[in-house]
Amino acid sequence: MIFSLGVRFVLKNFTDDQIQFILGEIQNYYLNERNEKISTNEANKVLEFFNYSIAPFFYNAILNDVIELVERQYSQLSGEIVNLQKMSMKETIKN
Q1: Which DSSP helix (H) or strand (E) runs through 79?
Q2: How many percent of the chain have pLDDT more than 90?
Q3: Tens digits of per-residue pLDDT, 25-41?
Q4: Where are the domains of the chain?
């Protein structure tokens, strides 16, 4: 493993192949955009920087999106349950 324990902890859900792919993408970016060839170790340092400095912002934004989605689904489900209760009461009254 090339990456440090800290990065591995943050990226614990990524496979080694995914990490290697990400490191390759970082290396390709530097080569194509900056005309700089960087080592895997240097790419790992960039990855560490993003994980500790920037990734938490993305992570929290995604969690906020998930919260909004779950709240919408709960609201819809709650409405459907209320409708079922109303239908059940109507059936009870008819009988």
Answers
A1: helix 55-94
A2: 46
A3: 999 999 999 999 999 99
A4: 5-94
